[in-house]
Every structure is written in structure tokens, then in C-alpha cells.
Amino acid sequence: MGREPAQGAPRSAVGGGAQREALTSIGALTARRNPAGCTCVHSRREGAPVAGTGVVSMDESITPRRFVEAFTYDIPKHWLPGNEVVSSLLNAYTVLVPANEAFYIRTLNACLPRITDESLRKRCQAFIRQEAQHGVAHKRYWDNLDAQGYAYRGFERIVDRAIFKTMDRWAPLWLRASLVSCVEHINAYLGYEFLSQAMLERADPRVKDLMEWHFAEEIEHRAVAFDLLQAISPSYPVRLAGAATTAALFYVLMTGLAVALLVQDGAFWRRATLRQAAAHLGSNHHMGRRTIGHLWDYLRPGFHPSQLGGDGLAAAVLARQATAHPPVVVAMAAKAE
Questions:
Q1: What is the domain count for the chain?
Q2: Other CB atoms closer than 10 Å to residue 117's CB: what's the count?
Q3: Dihedral over Cα of 167, 136, 11, 30: its sign
Q4: Which of 50, 104, 79 is nearest to 231 (CA)?
Q5: Which among 34, 165, 219, 274 could bridge 314 via Cys, Cβ 3.0 to 4.6 Å?
Q6: Domain that holds residue 111
Q7: Cα–Cα distance between 10 and 29 in angstroms, integer?
């Protein structure tokens, strides 16, 4: 069982009344029903529509940031009090992030010579810089996992070499781009769900800051990889091939590692663990049903990531973290052309 966050720790800016305030702080919002029947929220912002959808997405102005908050070794193993399952799932996520992000970066760098649209090129370059910082920050958190006695580095190395490095060598670029497009949708909807449901409200504030920063930036750049795929290989079967491969890999790897971490804790067979899993997937967070819905959305022929919404949630998190004392994130200087 982890400890409660320290008194005076900043509370989430995305829950309750704060969420409503955040959603109205960056512009008038409209809600509509998409063809799959889910309510999507969009902000009316100045700028050009994304990919002909008529929707302006937050990722039109992507800001690379460094996560500068320090980690110390007193972070509890189960940093979300009373929920070993979600703590272990996101610990597994943080182990997989660096190799994943490096694969995204290599894929987008390989695609850049094929991009003729200058706006898309700049968005891809900003995306790459954001993803590089995600890998750096999550790898810093690994020191805490090491101090807690977890064995995971061998698993991470095998995944990187057997999957990502193998795909670099053998998978065609269109498939790699499709994989990145789908996993970025998964990252964005995870961010949307965790922020909109304030799932990390009671988490250790340091881990909460790391996860919410990452999730907010995933929402911010959620359309980049999809727009890139449409630019270089707009085939619907290509999207399906990437989705099938990505969904299988992502959930098997993340769930498998989370189970391994729970086994190392001796918590896997506890009834409380099963109740937590049931609550996360069903009665509380409904992540089983919501995951299926988000994946189904991605398979719709008319899908675009901007339909997910969440710009206000992301903006609130990033603004709060940038203005904290000391700051949690710092915007990076623009890269010279």
C-alpha cells in the first residue's frame, strides 16, 4: 500500500469544477456526436482545419517541453494508494515508453523525406522532440523501480531488440507508420480517459505529474502520426493492418509486464487485486468498454484523431505544471531551421 500524497500537494486541475473551468478557458466548446455515436468535444481555435475535417486540433501548435521535476527514492511501490493494479499497469507503461518512443522517432525520421507539406513537416519535427523527452523522463523514473527491487530490464531489452529493432529492419515503412498512428491513438485515448476521469487524483504527486504531463502531450499531438500516415499511405487496409498488429502487441506487452510486477510483489493472487482489476475494467473506470469503443472509432473509415477531443484537459495540465513553483515542465527553445 502506498502513502497518501503529501499535504499541500497540488490537486488535479482536471477534476470536477476545475475540469469545467479548464474546458472553457481556451475557447468556446462544442459537443457533437460522431458517426460511431460517441460524444466528442472540440475547441474552436484560430488556425487551419486538420486534414479536411473542419476541426482545428490543439496539435497545430505543439510545444516541446522538458519534464524537470526531481524523483527521489521514497516513491512507494504502489503510488496510487489502494490500487496496485493501476500502479502496476502504469509502471509497465513507463518501462515500455522509451523503446516505443525511440521507434516512433526512427519511423518519423524515415518518413520526413517523403513529406511535401511544410506544416506537416514542422508538426512531425515538434512531435519527435516531444517524444524524445518522454523517453528521457520515463527512463529517469526507472531508478525508482530499480530501488524498489523490480526486475524488468531484461524484458525491456528483449522487447526492444525482438520487436522494435526487428521492425526497423524488416517491416516496410508504410506498416511502421501505420503502427505509430494506431499506438498514438491508444496513447491519446488513455490520456483522455485518465485525465477526464481524474484517475490519478490520489496518486503520489511526483508520479502523477509525470503521467499527466505525458498524457497531456499525447492529446496535444494526437493527430500528427495519423496525418503523416494519410500523407504517405492513405490506404484503409494499411490502417487496418497497423491497428491489428499494434493492438495485439500493446495490450499483450503492457498487461504481461504488469502481471509480472504484481507477481513480484506477491499481490497477483490476492482477491483485492482481482477486485481492483474488475473495478478498473468495469464498474468504476469502465476501461474495458471504453477501450473497445476507442479502438472501434479508429477503425471507422471517416475517423480523425481530432474527434477525440480533450484539448482543454491537456491545456489545463500543461499550464498548471508550467506555472508551478518550482515548475514541473519547461518549454524548450525553438529548434533552428
A1: 1
A2: 12
A3: negative
A4: 50
A5: 219
A6: 74-302
A7: 26
Express as a percent the part of the chain with pLDDT over 70.
82
Average pLDDT over residues 300-324: 95
pLDDT tens digits along 224-259: 999 999 999 999 999 999 999 999 999 999 999 999
Instruction: Report the C-alpha gap between 330 and 67 in whole angstroms.
Output: 7
Write the CA distances from 22 to 13, 26, 43, 265, 297, integer angstroms: 8, 7, 11, 38, 25
- Domain assignment present for 273: yes
Count Cβ atoms within 10 A of the Cβ of residue 6 and give its class: 0-12 exposed, 13-18 middle, 19 or more buried.
exposed
CB 100 within 8 A of CB 163: no
At residue 337, the pLDDT reads 57
pLDDT exceeds cutoff 70 at 53: no
Instruction: Tell which wins on pLDDT, 87 or 49.
Output: 87
Asked if the bond preceding 326 is cis, omega within 30° of 0, the reply is: yes
Higher pLDDT pick, 209 / 267 = 209
Q: Give CA–CA dist 147/72, Å, rounded.
A: 10
